[in-house]
Amino acid sequence: MFRTHFAFGLLIGLLSLNFFVVDPKWLFVLIVAVASSFPDIDHPRSKISKLLFPVSWIISWVATHRGIFHSIFPIIGLYFLFDYLGLSTIGIAIGIGYLSHLIGDALTYNGIDFLYPISRFKIAGPISTGGLLEMVVYVIIVILDVVLLINNNFINVNFY
Fold it and tell me: Where are the domains of the chain?
């Protein structure tokens, strides 16, 4: 679900700050979180599809959900595009967010094939999309997001 992907993308973006020197940090984290919704452009009822209609309509007509847009190939292509444009940091942020979505979907019953269309080997996990376990995972991720937002000084909290 969008909210879980966004929260997980935010978490991964905040954790990524330990590995990259970026400025402004908030923009990098925001790009990661927003990019975490990009793979679902192949699903006609997703938030990103509604936002990017009619491009998404063409994509969903040509590509199947959890097909090519749920593989590593768009990540590679997007990174090289942004690197070519001299925006490699944005390419990295988009790639991290995109990958966070793929990891999240790989944990669901339906799973994904990271190398589609080259392989037909799906990785799947125990989580049912929209189910109780996803809700528990979502709540845990949101709590971790808040802790990291405070620790990275995105939120200023005084307890005295």
Answer: 2-147
